[in-house]
Specification:
Distance between the termini: 17 Å
Structural class: alpha+beta
Number of strands: 9
Radius of gyration: 20 Å
Shape: elongated
Oligomer: single chain
Helix content: 25-40%
Largest sheet: 5 strands, antiparallel
Length: 163
């Protein structure tokens, strides 16, 4: 009888890397000519990014700078859940972006359905905010990894604890 192999599907964002990306983005904003004299700022509060700027146009530019810095540090951009733009004090605008950690119910349902419809002898079970996938064949697990990478998910997923 062969031993079963397994891996976990998770969705995590490294908060230390996000903090570094925010610091680098703020350095760039302070030196850019188009942000001269503006009240633009990015702060990291627990698992929320708070973007503050003079108007919606500058806020979009602020987002572009932040996203470029996050992309360079391999932080999944899909895991940002932007709130609505709201007015703030001093005639500025603010927008919160929540960093999504873990696999939510909707995405877990998509992944589990994908695994069941694959026709392979694979078991999957949801454990808190991750999914454990087990099978006797490592080749089948590789096929599931490829299928999940191709799936249209609203979050970025990683594959860990491959045994």
């Amino acid at each position: 009888m062969s031993k079963e192999s397994s891996f976990d599907i998770v969705s995590k964002v490294d908060l230390a890397e996000v903090s570094n990306a925010v610091q680098i983005a703020m350095k760039e904003i302070q030196t850019r000519y188009d942000f001269k004299g503006s009240k633009s700022n990015i702060t990291l509060e627990k698992e929320d990014l708070v973007l503050l700027s003079d108007d919606e146009y500058k806020l979009e530019q602020l987002k572009d700078v932040l996203i470029s810095k996050m992309f360079k540090r391999n932080i999944p951009i899909k895991n940002l859940d932007y709130g609505k733009i709201e007015g703030a004090s001093g005639g500025t605008v603010r927008q919160r972006a929540k960093l999504v950690q873990g696999i939510d119910r909707d995405n877990a349902k998509i992944i589990n359905t994908l695994i069941k419809n694959s026709g392979l002898k694979i078991k999957s079970q949801q454990q808190d905010d991750q999914i454990r996938v087990t099978a006797k064949s490592r080749d089948d697990l590789q096929k599931i990894i490829a299928a999940v990478k191709e799936a249209k998910l609203t979050i970025d997923v990683q594959f860990v604890n491959y045994r």
